[in-house]
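Sanity check. The docking grid for zinc ion depends on where the pocket ends up, so I'm generating a full predicted complex first rather than guessing from homology. Inputs follow.
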Amino acid sequence: MLSPEILAKYQPVIGLEVHVQLLTATKAFCGCVNKYGGEPNTHVCPVCLGLPGALPVLNRKAVELAVLASKAIGCEIRETSIFARKNYFYPDLPKGYQISQFDKPIAEHGHINVPDAQGNPKRIGITRLHMEEDAGKSLHDGYADSVSRTYIDLNRCGTPLVEIVSEPDIRTPDEAFEYLTRLKEILLYTGVSDCNMEEGSLRCDANVSVMLKTDTRFGTKAEVKNVNSFRYIRAALEYEIERQIEVLESGGRVVQESRLWNNAEGRTYSMRSKEQAHDYRYFPEPDLPALVVGAEWQAEILKALPELPEARRARMIAEYDITQQDAMTLTATREFADKFEAAARKAKSPRRVVSLITSELTGRLKAADLELAQSPVSLAGIVQAADLAESGELSSKMLKQLLDACFAEGKDFAEIYERDKPQQISDAGAIEKMIDEVIAANPKQVEQYRGGKKTVAAFFVGQVMRLSKGQANPALLNELVTKKLDA
Ligand SMILES: [Zn+2]
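Predicted complex below; grid placement will be based on this.
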């Protein structure tokens, strides 16, 4: 364990490489289905098996999704990009090379904003986004003779990917976690990938080095490979930063290498030395022409670009007068944000709909261990409840009781309200008595009303509704209040 004083002498520098599988129906360069799983080696053809004479044909949809992803992270599109062969030998790569992009990727110079330790926005640069194809899989276990054999499944071969490479702008494991969270959110909003980390649709490698804060040159970096959750990446970076500082403090030097995270032990292990840098012998792919995405095609593709999470939160904060935290809750997924907005626009007070969701609904969901999508109370039910609260027909106590009943019985609000709604007072005499009471207690508002400010009537309606515990017949109440005030 290193002391805080020693840790404070060093500055970590982190860059992230994220591989994202695109949600196309078919693979990048052939017509095979692009689908996770399946019987091994059934989603294959001569092209993705790399058989002699087979030729790749680029999937138009993959290009469109790559352009959408690029724009969503603020990248510039290169009008003419070039596919290249990245040559290396591996059993799950039958062609002996991966079709990728090298010096002319489809997009460059983007960025994502993340909150820094103080909560202020910090811009993390994105060097490039390039297109490539995935390799197959080596299956090291799951078979009776797995002890002595490794099996190969080529179903994943040729799956379209984009690789998104960040600038070394990230300074803490928390910033890395935020960057990944925001990136995933943007990709999900844009619909280019399902980002399912368990199935490998989103994979991350992290480059990390440390340097003395007094130094101006970055230290030697190590690469932490294939960590399958954002929390583990944060833990791996925390471990790796301390490990490297310890090496330097004890007079050693950090070796440039790839390391694997072992979650059970909470540490990284050396995987292979990168001292002799890989020579992938990149050269332009001779079987594919240059990829040209002209202005017209770009404009066509960008019609599918939705409002992005950060912009949407900013707009919703202004439009519904809500907090940043509320906005985070409401925009957790694009689907929920869409449903919320459609509902809120029909409500008397969108602000009240938000507060019902953030204060009453999320608390009950958490207690019942339910996701928003599993809520017994629909958004339409929340809007109904909010409108009843807004008009004063439901006291906040009554509202809570009704929602409790909804959760206890697994029923929507409309059904419970119809059954348990408070008894209405439709006795004009009883309502008039309450109106007299409120008028007597608020001479200033009466004066305003009689001075011509007719909107003050709503104040009296609200007060009487409260006094009646939400039980006064609203139509009758409105009529009587106007009558009394005009008298
Ligand atoms: Zn194929």
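Relevant for the grid: The pocket of zinc ion is lined by residues 27, 30, 32, 44-45, 47-48, 158 (CB under 6 Å).
Also worth noting: The mean pLDDT is 91.
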